[in-house]
Amino acid sequence: MTESNKRKIRLTIPEQEILSPGHLACQGCGAALAMRYALKALGPDTITAIPACCWSVIDGPFPYSAAGVPIYHCAFETAASTAGGISYAIKALKKKGITALAWAGDGGTFDIGFQALSGAAERGDNIIYVVYDNEAYMNTGIQRSSATPYGAWTTTTPVKHFKKAPKKNIMEIMVAHHIPYGATANIAYPEDFIKKLQKAKNIEGCKFIHLYAPCPTGWKHPPGITVKIARLATETRIFPIYEVERGVYTINKKVPKPKSVDMYLKMQGRFRHLSSEAIQYIQQQVDANWERLIKLEQAFGS
Amino acid sequence: MKKVLTGNFTAAYGAVAAKVNVISAYPITPQTTIVEILSEIVADGKLDAEFIKVESEHSALASCIGAQALGARTFTATSAQGLALMHELLHWTARGRLPIVIANVNRAMAPGWSIWADVTDSVSQRDTGWMQMYCENNQEVFDSIIMSYKIGEHRDVLLPTLINLDAFFLSHTSQVVDLYTEKVIDQFLPCYQPAVHLDVKDPRSFGALTSPEYYYEFSYKIQQAMIRAKSVIRDVGKKFGELFDRQYDLVEPYRCDDAEIILVNYGTIAGTAKEAVDVMRDQGISVGSLKIRYFRPFPSEDIEAVLKTANKVGVIDRAVSYGHAGPFFTEIQACMSGTSLPLYGFVAGLGGRDVSLHDIENIVKHMQSRKPEELIWIGIKDD
Fold it and tell me: In this predicted structure, what is the pLDDT of residue A2?
């Protein structure tokens, strides 16, 4: 950006680009945008533990790396414990001002990595844990995870036998650990995501961010509408944006006039098979979950 | 400074003497007192380190990996099921070339639940790229922890070490242990200086996707490091001897020079074997004992040099590779394959069954009167 342009534009997110453009993400990948924003928020003094997930490919094969910060590729189920180890070593070796970031997909967080995450949260390991949620095992080719929502097609929940179980409410499970800070975020709202990461960086203990990150390849939507779909997830109240700071609930995006879930579902091939009854059921669930969240904010808001 | 210590306390004091920066551990019988004493020592500020009270052995090693990758010297301890749960991370540590040290209290694998000694837990980790050594007594536990950091951190090696001590026979048995002085230990083992580490000023990616073009060579480098480790182990053992008056090598022969029969063994059985050798020598039987300290790297040349003059060799294994033979026996067989030396394979002491002096005398009697045959299970109750 030239100096003259700078004067005209008021930047709402940090200008510094730490992630290089030469990464290996699919076109329209929500997870690539996610890392770009995360590094803008946290800066170069960040050390990242990445388990098996799309990002273990996106960063590039040996000897290349796109991230621009140190990355430790760790075992699938160890994002939290590896990042935890890094955080304790930062303390033991008195290296000040370095953030330990665990960066995992939904499979590595909701499923196989959950034990390590629960342990780190209970101990209060000084890490920021970000789950970029694309609602299935995308790196292995779109298999259902416990983050896959009701109704979705995946290769292990084929159309005739689409997923019947609801998505696991990971935020509430993490809040139940009494962590100092938990938040949901969405790649469609980078200012909010960045603000939350910066807040998390200045809080001691285990911070958790559940980040919504669409996957055009697995969700079967054109790569050009990733952000649009992500925004619709919040505008339909499917994915509410809220934070819980030391038990205090704040809904950051109020959504007074929600759009119908129909709009969101119809844009994605993974929901194409759904009957009107199934869509109605999803709407009811979304309404009920929102209602519950409103009550939580009323009861435990500031 | 000399103290009367159990094997577990000795292991804990070994980690303290090595001035580890981060300890991460999960309790399991019979390793538990290592975790207890270390957490207390760290909490009391007697060791300037962080202790991570993890929720599993899996996270114990994962967090050691993260900490060691940042440049910390790390330590953990485990046993049996815990070591098995760490299996994937054992590969991760060695392929990541992180010289972590684990004290493993050798315990039999379940089911049925057993808390007693055998080495199935550690020999099952043979191909993970870890150096593996077996201790005869508590002094060797202390000395080996200190030496293992020096060996593992050597630029020619950069590999982790699994230090094995038999459940109860060492872990819960008190012996006199010389802890030396802090000053001399610090001189022998200075602070950890990693070859490469997670550094925000020099951002690198560790362990990324590796194509067949590179993976093969990474594996070759681990093999080369293991081979080089043999001479590093010898050198470090010698240097240790100069400073502390106790010398160590890859193997330890006892009255083998003129022995017609040599018994190969490891762990606490080595102590009993030495005693049995003395008793039988007094009876005029020409017998010696060869203790193997290192299972990986496997000291084939050293073993061959000792065994080549014997008429008969028996190997006593406290584990079995089901469907074949004892894990050390097959290695000895491989390194003596160019000779016509009669080799006898014995299994003894699984699940903590006592291996007595009498058992070892019976092994020698068996070798005197019979030709080598199938694997012999000492003291097996047949019905």
Answer: 60
Closest CA to B100 of B125, B126, B66, B127: B66
Q: Which residue of A has its CA nearest to B59?
A: A81
Task: Out of A158-162, B259-263, B291-295, pick the least confident.
Answer: A158-162
**Which domains are present in chain A?**
17-300 (3.40.50.970)
pLDDT in tens, B167-194: 999 999 999 999 999 999 999 999 999 9
Confidence of residue A5 (pLDDT cuts 50, 70, 90): low
Q: Which domain holds residue B99?
A: 2-244
In a domain, B139, yes or no: yes
Average pLDDT score, chain A:
96
Residue B382 has a pLDDT of: 81
| Closest of B250, B249, B231, B232 to residue B241, by C-alpha | B249
**Residue B258 shares a structural domain with residue B118:** no
Between residues A3 and B25, the one the model is more confident about? B25
CB contact under 8 A, B66 and A77: no
Chain B contact present for A105, CB below 8 A: no
Do B272 and B188 fall into the same domain? no
CA distance B73 to B21: 5
Residue finishing a domain among B198, B215, B244: B244
For A104, residues 6+ apart whose C-beta sits below 8 A from its C-beta are: A50, A51, A53, A79, A80, A113, A129, A130, A131, A132
**ipTM of predicted assembly, 2 dp:** 0.97
Helix axes B7-17, B32-43, angle to 10 degrees: 40
Task: Find chain A residues with C-beta within 8 A of B191's C-beta.
Answer: none
Nearest to B22 among A47, A92, A122 (CB): A92
Q: Give me the amino acid identity at B315.
A: V
In a domain? residue B10: yes
Q: How many domains does chain B have?
A: 2
Asked whether residue B237 falls in the same domain as residue B256, the answer is no
* Strand residue runs (E) in A90-247: 99-105, 128-133, 181-186, 207-212, 242-245
* B50 found inside a domain: yes
Distance (Å, whole) CA B98 – CA B69: 7
Q: Are residues B228 and B258 in the same domain?
A: no
Q: Is B382 within the bounds of a domain?
A: no
Contact B66 A89 (CB under 8 A): yes
Contact A72 B207 (CB under 8 A): yes
Residues B195 and B276 placed together within one structural domain of the fold? no
Tell me: do B258 and B318 sit in the same domain: yes
Ramachandran region, residue A135 (left: φ > 0; alpha: ψ -120 to 50; beta: rest): left
Which residues in A lie closer than 8 A to residue B68 (C-beta atoms)?
85, 89
Residue that finishes a domain, picked among B225, B244, B263: B244
Question: The tokens of B340 are what?
Answer: 């016509």
Best mutation site among B22, B58, B63, B197 for testing chain A: the one with the most A CBs within 10 Å?
Answer: B63
**Under an 8 A CB cutoff, do B199 and A92 touch?**
no
CATH code of the domain in which B99 resides? 3.40.50.970
d(CA A206, nearest CA chain B) in Å: 14
**8 A C-beta contact, residue B147 and residue B180:** no
Residue in B closest to A120 by C-alpha:
B54
- pLDDT of A270-293, one tens digit each? 999 999 999 999 999 999 999 999
| Same domain, residue pair B20 and B45 | yes
Binned at pLDDT 50, 70 and 90, residue A4 comes out as low
Q: Give yes or no: residues B48 and B120 share one domain.
A: yes
Chain A interface test: which of B192, B200, B215 (most A C-beta within 10 Å): B200
Q: Is A54 exposed, middle or buried (0-12, 13-18, 19+ CB in 10 A)?
A: buried
**Touching B: A residues 110-129, CB under 8 Å:** 115-116, 118-119, 122-123, 125
Chain A positions in Cβ-Cβ contact with residue B49 (cut-off 8 Å): 92
- Whether A46 contacts chain B with CB within 8 A: yes
Contacts with B89 from chain A: Cβ below 8 Å: 75, 78
pLDDT digit string, tens, across residues A181-224: 999 999 999 999 999 999 999 999 999 999 999 999 999 999 99
